[in-house]
Write a structure and sequence with these properties.
There is one protein chain. The chain has 195 residues and is mainly beta. 11% of the residues lie in helices and 65% in strands. It contains two helices and ten strands, in the order H-E-E-E-E-E-E-E-E-E-H-E. Strands 1-3-4-5-6-8-9-10 form an eight-stranded antiparallel barrel. The protein is elongated, with a radius of gyration of 19 Å. The two termini are 35 Å apart.
């Protein structure tokens, strides 16, 4: 089974090496919060994202788009136990599969890997490092829609559904904490001419 997977992966990489490729840049706004059983009182936090991508054309309609993006996430907490803002910074690697229509519209879906860069809690003007209590890896599944003009400029919206826990409850309070990232992204991108 491992040999079949390895051969399939190598064949796919060989195909991509000969596929038409374009490069692009993207940036926009994140509307993020934490969801889960232990996220009561969590409210939307507004921040930003920005990065670059490569788009491989499998055919005119099907595209494969790996990305490298810095994404600032977080949530506002306001309940009787906690009041303040959680701020997380991730380097994310979305791996999107896209279907493009001749009119410029496209839909996309795929996994997103996130690697924690920083984590802070801010309350009453004080900022505290929270990295020791935040999981270093985040896993999401993303769904999106977009539109690209012939000039290369485009607009897209994406929802990232958190599938892994964010807070390291074992380190913080010696028990699991059920909180996951939930993010809506709205932004612009530009595709440069490729081969």
């Amino acid at each position: 089974m491992k040999k079949i997977l390895l051969l399939s992966f190598l064949a796919f990489m060989g195909y991509l090496a000969n596929a038409q490729v374009q490069f692009g840049a993207k940036a926009g706004v994140n509307f993020s919060t934490l969801v889960g059983d232990d996220s009561e009182g969590a409210k939307t936090h507004t921040s930003f994202y920005g990065g670059a991508f490569a788009r491989f054309s499998i055919n005119e309609s099907i595209k494969f788009q790996p990305e490298l993006v810095y994404s600032a996430l977080g949530t506002k907490a306001d309940d009787q136990d906690v009041s303040g803002e959680f701020r997380f910074g991730y380097i994310t690697v979305p791996i999107m599969f896209q279907y493009h229509t001749p009119g410029g519209f496209f839909g996309e879906t795929g996994p997103q890997l996130g690697f924690l860069v920083n984590s802070k809690v801010e309350s009453e003007g004080t900022s505290v490092d929270f990295k020791d209590y935040t999981k270093s890896f985040d896993f999401n599944w993303a769904f999106g829609l977009g539109y690209q003009l012939k000039s290369g400029l485009g607009f897209n919206a994406r929802y990232c559904l958190g599938l892994s826990k964010v807070i390291d409850g074992e380190a913080l309070i010696e028990q699991e904490v059920d909180t996951k990232n939930s993010v809506i992204q709205v932004g612009l991108f530009y595709v440069f001419k490729g081969k």
